[in-house]
Design brief:
8 strands; 49% strand; three-stranded antiparallel sheet; single chain; 118 residues; extended; alpha+beta
């Protein structure tokens, strides 16, 4: 049975819940029936890891900001990543971004600007 991540909003408050259901429509119908909060997003959870997270030893670069682009479609988008391994430099990170990520379904041709906050 699929697991769903549901984002609910009311006023300035935002809550995220995780529920199992047969479909996203069932989740939406459930919340419309029982809650005053507005469902703003329903996502199917494709991966979840409930093991204990590693201890925070602060041995990482705290923040990466960059602009990624696709030359064919002339589109770009800001990307923000947290807790980057110290062994990864900007060239390595750019290569990983190009290898694994996309913009609107298109390949990423380059990382235009980068900023690391340590």
């Amino acid at each position: 049975m699929p697991m769903y991540r549901v984002q609910l909003k009311q006023g300035s408050r935002t809550i995220v819940n995780h529920l199992e259901a047969d479909s996203w429509e069932d989740i939406l119908n459930f919340y419309n029936a029982v809650s005053t909060m507005q469902v703003s997003e329903i996502l199917e959870v494709k991966y979840s890891n409930d093991t204990k997270p590693p201890i925070d030893d602060f041995n990482y670069k705290r923040l990466f900001k960059g602009i990624v682009r696709n030359d064919e479609e002339h589109i770009s988008r800001q990307i923000i990543l947290h807790n980057i391994k110290n062994s990864i430099d900007s060239k390595d990170l750019a290569n990983y971004i190009k290898q694994y990520l996309k913009i609107r379904g298109k390949k990423i041709d380059g990382v235009v600007t980068t900023l690391f906050r340590i």
